[in-house]
């Protein structure tokens, strides 16, 4: 479950630069909100997008920031076109792993997702059958 924080607009740092998502969350959260988020994180929930695996709010913030910086550095190394090509290759690799039919099934589920509900939840409510066995690779 994602804890959704509404960010009205990006905050600017004292230097006039836009803050990262994590920095904006830090500056907008009250002490009480941070305590509540930290408690959720300690129970194993991901409360910061990109912070998966962190055992506390602060750990998740650090992980998310590091992952974001890593992606930005890689994009700078490859350039925009190279970075897009890398993503395309990843998609093609996954398509080869699960086959054309599995890739279509995965897209069907992804196309149903919204900010409020996952594709699986919407499919269940709407009675749309999604065969996840088509796009899960066998454990080796």
Number of strands: 0
Low-pLDDT segments: 4-12
| Major pleated sheet | none
How far is the N terminus from the C terminus?
29 Å
Q: How much is the average pLDDT?
A: 81
The class by helix and strand makeup works out as mainly alpha
* Secondary-structure element pattern, one letter each: HHHH
| Estimated share of beta-strand residues | under 5%
Please compute the radius of gyration using only Cα atoms. Answer: 19 Å
Q: What is the number of helical segments per DSSP (H or I, 4+ residues)?
A: 4
Specify the helix fraction band: 55-70%
- Shape field: flat
Family: Belongs to the small hydrophilic plant seed protein family.
GO biological process, one term: response to abscisic acid
InterPro entries: LEA_5 (IPR038956), Sm_Hydphi_plant_seed_CS (IPR022377), Small_hydrophilic_seed_prot (IPR000389)
Can you describe this structure in just a few lines?
It holds the Pfam family LEA_5. By secondary structure, this protein is mostly helical. The chain has helices at 21-28, 31-42, 57-112, 119-126.
């Amino acid at each position: 479950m994602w804890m959704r924080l509404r960010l009205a607009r990006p905050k600017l740092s004292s230097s006039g630069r836009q803050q990262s998502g994590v920095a904006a969350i830090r500056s907008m959260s009250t002490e009480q909100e941070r305590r509540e988020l930290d408690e959720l994180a300690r129970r194993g929930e991901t409360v910061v997008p990109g912070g998966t695996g962190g055992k506390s709010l602060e750990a998740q913030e650090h992980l998310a920031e590091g992952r974001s910086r890593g992606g930005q550095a890689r994009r700078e190394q490859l350039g925009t076109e190279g970075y897009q090509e890398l993503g395309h290759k990843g998609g093609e690799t996954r398509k080869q792993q699960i086959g054309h039919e599995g890739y279509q099934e995965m897209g069907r589920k992804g196309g149903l997702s919204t900010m409020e509900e996952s594709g699986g939840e919407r499919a269940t409510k709407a009675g749309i059958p999604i065969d996840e066995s088509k796009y899960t690779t066998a454990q080796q």
